[in-house]
Design brief:
Layout: H1 3-11, H2 25-35, H3 38-62, H4 64-144, H5 150-163, H6 173-203, H7 206-219, H8 222-244, H9 247-253, H10 273-307, H11 317-323, H12 329-351, H13 353-361, H14 363-398, H15 403-415, H16 418-424, H17 427-448, H18 458-474, H19 479-503, H20 519-545, H21 551-558, H22 561-588, H23 609-626, H24 633-655, H25 662-678, H26 691-699, H27 708-712, H28 716-719, H29 724-733, H30 737-757, H31 766-780
Helix pairs in contact: 4-5, 4-6, 5-6, 5-7, 6-7, 7-8, 7-10, 8-10, 8-12, 10-12, 10-14, 12-13, 12-16, 13-17, 14-15, 14-16, 17-18, 17-19, 18-19, 18-20, 19-21, 19-22, 20-22, 22-23, 22-24, 23-25, 24-26, 30-31
Length: 787
């Protein structure tokens, strides 16, 4: 059909619905009736039909040859179909004849097969019945013999159970009596095995435990039976812990128990506290024994399980049990024990304030019981864990597929710390005890410093040391507890230092050296003396009374000593600095005296005025300001440093005196001799001062050298244009010999420049010697000429 006709129909709203795929005659007719005039619509439809007829006639006329060819082909197809129909009828007739010949034999074979299957099932059932009767008879013989062989009886029961597992043997009259006997026998064997297991566990008899385990294995209930044994151990231990911490049971043990009405708290009477406390600790000691026995029984069961193997598969009983558990036997039991202890201690502390108080106050005694318990169990724990590790290795070698699961179990077992788990059960009690202990250590320190204007008395310090000793001795039962208490002791000593630091006066009143000691200086001395006493007591206690404690504990205790030393040093240092400044000011006055005189008569035994003043000041400082401090290494070090500083300043300024005559030399030499006497109030043996004293002794002969121009030449400070005090301060600020050698080199270079500027023909005779000494010194310190 021409596409133009379809296009016209598609564009015409009247004909377009007839071309739609979902065209519905009834609905379209209904729409036409409701929407337009029927006559007009019929007329348009008639026109469309006519148009289609003309188009069909046109198409037929154009393709009549093709249509004739198709009509001829239809006739040929009809002939072929007729032939096929005839052949199909022939095939159906053959099939029917074959069916008649096959169906009857098939039905006979089917009936015979059914009969054969039933015969075989009957034979199998008869064989099972016969076997059951034989096993029942054997079982009766095994149970009736003396002594009873419950292991073989368990094998018979296991085989009977296997025979009836896949086949329903109920309802057979021949087996009803035997089945009742078997059920009764199984119950009896299980009970006997349970009794034997309990007896073997109690008596530590491996033979009885091994027999019971073999019976459980033969009955196919090994895993649940072992779990029941462990659950029974844990349940008994749970009852033991509950009874140990039961306040009612404790009160019943005490004499003169008072009955309490509903709602009243059970409290020990005034005369019952001691008995109540003794009963509590007696129960706790017994509880530790119960825990130990439970773990020993677990170890005993573990050993037997590790020895027993299936006679057929050779699988170890322990491996079979632990395959059904997430952890080994010891870890499982120990986690339950620690859980019970944690829960019961928390419950007891919540229900009875007296139990909580006794446990908190006597916590070291409790942790000692824990420590003794773990020392008894440590070997058992290591033995079981080693066996498990060896077994895990063998399992991984034999079964690679279970490697990830076994690795996970091994990691959990290795990460589990049984000793730490045991200590964690006492964490609330330990925290409470440490809080009380910390209060006992810190409260005395706060109380002894209640008065802000005076250091604590000696008896108060003795009381603090006694408390420290007591706390450390009580905590010595446990290393970890000792370390924690030692940290608290160090904290109390630090607090003591802080309180003392608050008393130390740092104003000018504490460092004046003009008149008598001020109240501030007396207070600082009292604080330092008390710190010294505390230090000596702590050191003596650590080396004598507490010598039995572990070295880390005593080290923590002695860690507070540097803080005490630092505080003592900082409290004394301002006074020492003030004395040093006064000594330097007095020594500086030597430059105001005349040492240029040439008269040598009567001057060899006299000393200078400044030295007389220095002797008097040092004597007064030692008697008034330093004598109020108790002798100690810190004070001795400060005084020695002060004496060394005095000698250094004296030698320094003596070397800077300009000019010096022969009489001045003699007077200065006498000053050197008197200087040794001047510092005797600070140091009875000046030779102990070391290098500064040796410099003083070595400097005196240099005064009588013959090179006159050296004495008359300007000093290094004069060359740089500095005053004597500035040069002295520079020497104090530059203790490095390299810097001092650089300054000497600068002075010599300035001398060379002045000689050249004056157009002199030669240097002083001492210049080559000085230059040679300078070069040696620079070489010794690695200073080059270009540095």
């Amino acid at each position: 059909m021409s596409s133009s006709v379809f296009k016209e129909f598609q564009e015409d709203n009247t004909y377009a619905p007839f071309l739609a795929d979902d065209f519905d005659v009834q609905s379209h007719a209904s729409q036409l009736v409701q929407g337009v005039i029927i006559a007009e619509q019929l007329n348009k439809l008639t026109l469309g039909i006519n148009r289609l007829e003309r188009e069909i006639e046109s198409q037929v006329g154009s393709h009549y040859e093709d249509l004739l060819s198709q009509a001829t082909g239809v006739e040929t197809l009809e002939d072929v179909l007729n032939t096929m129909h005839t052949r199909i009828q022939t095939l159906l007739a053959g099939v029917e004849r074959l069916r008649v010949r096959v169906v009857d034999p098939y039905q006979r074979v089917e009936r015979h097969t059914l009969v054969l299957g039933r015969l075989q099932a009957t034979c199998e059932l008869l064989r099972r019945v016969i076997r059951c009767l034989m096993l029942s008879q054997r079982l009766q013989q095994q149970l009736s013999s003396e002594p009873r062989d419950i292991t073989k009886a368990a094998i018979s029961l296991s085989e009977l159970d296997h025979l009836g597992r896949d086949v329903d043997l109920t309802g057979l009259e021949v087996l009803e009596r035997d089945q009742r006997l078997v059920r009764q026998a199984r119950s009896d064997v299980e009970k006997q095995a349970v009794v034997m297991m309990d007896r073997g566990m109690e008596l530590q008899n491996q033979t009885q435990v091994g027999t019971a385990l073999q019976v459980f294995h033969n009955l196919g209930i090994l895993v649940p039976s072992v779990e029941k044994v462990l659950d029974s151990l844990i349940a008994r231990l749970n009852r033991s812990v509950s009874l140990t911490l039961d306040v009612n049971a404790l009160m019943q043990i005490s004499q003169d128990t008072r009955k309490s009405g509903p709602g009243k708290a059970i409290m020990p009477g005034p005369g019952q506290s001691v008995q109540f406390r003794a009963s509590l600790w007696s129960n706790l000691e017994k509880l530790m024994d119960d825990i130990y026995h439970a773990c020993v029984q677990t170890s005993h069961l573990h050993k037997v399980l590790a020895k027993k193997r299936d006679p057929v598969t050779h699988v170890c009983f322990l491996e079979e049990v632990q395959c059904h558990s997430n952890s080994d036997l010891f870890t499982k039991v120990w986690r339950n024990i620690t859980r019970i202890l944690t829960e019961e201690f928390a419950k007891a502390a919540q229900d009875s304030t007296f139990i909580r108080q006794y446990l908190e106050v006597d916590y070291p005694k409790l942790i000692r019981l824990y420590g003794d318990l773990w020392r008894r169990l440590e070997g058992i724990s290591m033995e079981m864990r080693n066996v498990n590790a060896d077994m895990s290795a063998s399992v991984l070698d034999s079964d690679v597929q279970d490697k990830e699961e076994e690795d996970k179990k091994d990691r959990e077992t290795q990460e589990f710390d049984p000793e730490q788990a045991l200590r964690c059960t006492l964490v609330p009690l330990e925290e409470a005890y440490l809080s009380r202990s910390r209060s006992r250590l810190l409260d005395p320190v706060n109380l002894m410093f209640a008065a802000q204007d005076a250091p604590p008395a000696k008896d108060e310090v003795d009381a603090l040391i006694k408390t420290i000793t007591s706390e450390l001795n009580v905590s010595a039962v446990d290393k970890s507890l000792s370390k924690t208490v030692a940290r608290n002791v160090a904290e109390s000593l630090q607090l003591f230092c802080v309180k003392c630091r608050q008393l130390v006066v740092t104003s000018g009143e504490a460092s004046q050296v003009i008149g008598s000691p001020t109240p501030a200086q007396v207070l600082n001395a009292a604080v330092v003396n008390q710190l010294l006493y505390v230090r000596s007591q702590v050191e003596r206690t650590a080396s004598a009374t507490l010598a039995h404690l572990p070295q880390p504990v005593t080290s923590m205790l002695l860690q507070a000593l540097p803080s005490i030393d630092s505080l003592m040093s900082s409290a004394v240092q301002p006074l020492v600095d003030s004395i040093t400044d006064a000594i330097e000011a007095i020594i500086l006055t030597m430059h105001s005296e005349d040492f240029s005189g040439g008269d040598t008569g009567g001057t060899d035994s006299q000393c200078s005025l400044y030295l007389k003043e220095l002797q008097g000041f040092i004597t007064r400082a030692a008697d008034d300001y330093l004598a109020i401090y108790q002798p100690s290494n810190i004070i001795k070090e400060k005084i020695h440093t002060l004496a060394c500083r005095c000698l250094d300043l004296f030698v320094r300024h003596a070397s800077l005196l300009r000019p010096i005559g022969e009489g001045g030399k003699l007077r200065l030499a006498a000053d050197f001799a008197q200087m040794e006497l001047a510092i005797s109030p600070l140091c009875s043996r000046p030779s102990e001062l070391g290098r500064p004293y040796r410099i003083v002794r070595s400097f005196r002969p240099l005064l009588f050298q013959t090179v006159q121009h050296v004495i008359a030449s300007p000093s290094i400070g004069d060359t740089a244009g500095w005053s004597v005090s500035r040069y002295s301060n520079w020497l104090d600020e530059h203790q490095d010999e390299r810097e001092r050698l650089q300054l000497v080199r600068g002075a010599l270079e300035a001398y060379v420049a002045s000689v050249r500027s004056r157009h002199l023909t030669q240097f002083a005779s001492v210049y080559p010697s000085m230059l040679k000494l300078l070069e040696k010194g620079m070489a010794a310190y690695g200073i080059t000429a270009n540095t």
